[in-house]
Amino acid sequence: MRFNLRTIASTSVAAALMLGLGACTASGSATPETSDTQSSATQQSQWPRTITDEKGSVTIEEQPKRIVNTAMSTTGSLLAIDAPVAATTVTTPGPEADSNGFFTQWSEAAAAANVQPLYKIGNFDLESIIAQDPDLIVVSTSGADSVMDHYDQLKEIAPTIVVNYSNKDWPELTRQLAAATGHEAEAEKIISEFDERAAQVKEKLAIPSGTTASIVSYNKGSASPVGKTTGPHSRLITALGFEVVEPPEEYNTNPQKRDDFVFTSYEGLAKSATGDATFLIAATEDTAKSFLSDPTLANLPSVKSKNVFPLANSFRLDYYSSSQILDYFENDFPSLAK
């Protein structure tokens, strides 16, 4: 199913960013050869297996049939490879989440897979996890959905893998989850199909060589995360033909150094978002108008040329949200003003 990004409203981005600006972009990987596919199929049938994760390694005796995901930001990646997610943590219903608290980009897939809400992020509930009788548990290293403080309890219930979605693009994260669930073939299929489509969209866009871009989560009057060249959002925008500008660290207000965003002070934004075009994540047309009318940003190249574009459902990047971004560039992107 395809979605028009202009129809999706945005929500509080600051809170969303602390939950995690997801891992997702064009992977740059080649389409798997037949031998690779056969190898993947063989690997899928091999159990037990030991998976390397952020804690070291974990041995999974049998292919999981009931996955409990405490890291909501990775639920879309699991669903995209048809991994058997029994339950996931949820967020507050609103513009970016359905009545169950599922993110809108994968809520239909979750409903089709009969995924159950586990508990609301921030309200850890060990009994709810036990009641799901999981044979695999997923935990994130950081973000509002991290429950690392309870890792020792969880690993006593079932094999528990620890992932870091803040420093990976979605193909890398998807491959890690595929290895833990035995869904390697499904992962390679969606990655290769996405890469092929991204290349087609890039060709259609024909962005002039050397065109620079900034990626901003705009919060007027306060810190605004600006995308780093190593972040998943930047990798996707780069795959479409832009050259992302690296924001200076000197304006970073976040004591935790991240690979995806610099949490730029409001005062430093005018010296950080200097691309020829600016893409505003988790934004609406009203957000873009506010950015364009902000007097402190009046001299930015993208403001002068009015090359400021809102990307609605885009702060958590997985297969689903990245596909929606491709939808936007393929169908709704108005092209660059000269």
TrEMBL record:
Keyword check for Acyltransferase, yes or no. Answer: no
Bilayer-crossing regions: none
Keywords of the record, alphabetical order, are: Signal, Transport
> What range(s) does the Fe/B12 periplasmic-binding domain occupy?
66-338
GO annotations under biological process? Answer: iron coordination entity transport
Span of the signal peptide: 1-26
- Write down the SUPFAM superfamilies for this protein, in alphabetical order: Helical backbone' metal receptor
Query: Where does this one sit in the cell?
Result: Cell envelope
Give me the stretches of Low complexity compositional bias: 34-46
Judging by the UniProt lineage, the source's domain of life is Bacteria
Q: InterPro entries from the entry? A: ABC_transptr_periplasmic_BD (IPR002491), Bact_iron-sidero_bind (IPR051313)
Q: Which GO terms describe its cellular component?
A: outer membrane-bounded periplasmic space
Q: Does the keyword Disulfide bond apply?
A: no
Family stated for the protein in its record: Belongs to the bacterial solute-binding protein 8 family.
Q: Which NCBIfam families match?
A: PRK10957.1
In its UniProt entry, what is this protein called? Fe2+-enterobactin ABC transporter substrate-binding protein
Q: Which organism is it from?
A: Glutamicibacter halophytocola
